[in-house]
């Protein structure tokens, strides 16, 4: 079960990854295939000419991701390599 504040409307990709246990790589892939969340490009990065994108998710997106995504085995560890989690896409 995921507990959040009722006043929070948007969640960053780091917050969603921490709440669901899905790594950022799989979270972004799942969000793209299921058309969840949206990408925001900060003004400071845009003005500096950098290509930085920030993912934001709504509560509804968080619910869907909680159901579809399985926890990654290496979540929270500093291992390099592929994740063995299988996503229900």
Would you write up a description of this structure?
By secondary structure, the chain is α+β, with helices and mostly antiparallel strands. It is 39% helix and 12% strand. It is built from four helices and three strands, in the order E-H-H-E-H-E-H. The protein has helices at residues 13-20, 24-34, 43-48, 59-68, and strands at residues 10-12, 38-40, 54-58. It starts with 9 loop residues before the first strand and ends in a 21-residue tail after the last helix.
Q: Which outline best applies?
A: globular
Biggest sheet strand line-up: 1-3-2
Amount of helix: 25-40%
Strand content: 5-15%
**What's the mean pLDDT score?**
77
Query: Which regions are unreliable across 5 or more consecutive residues at pLDDT < 50?
Result: 77-81
What string, H for helix and E for strand, traces the elements in order? Answer: EHHEHEH
Extended strand count: 3
Give the topology.
Blueprint: E1 10-12, H1 13-20, H2 24-34, E2 38-40, H3 43-48, E3 54-58, H4 59-68
Antiparallel strand pairs: 1-3, 2-3
Summarize, please.
The protein has 89 residues and is α+β, with helices and mostly antiparallel strands. It has helices at residues 13-20, 24-34, 43-48, 59-68; strands spanning 10-12, 38-40, 54-58.
Keywords:
89 residues; alpha+beta; 4 helices
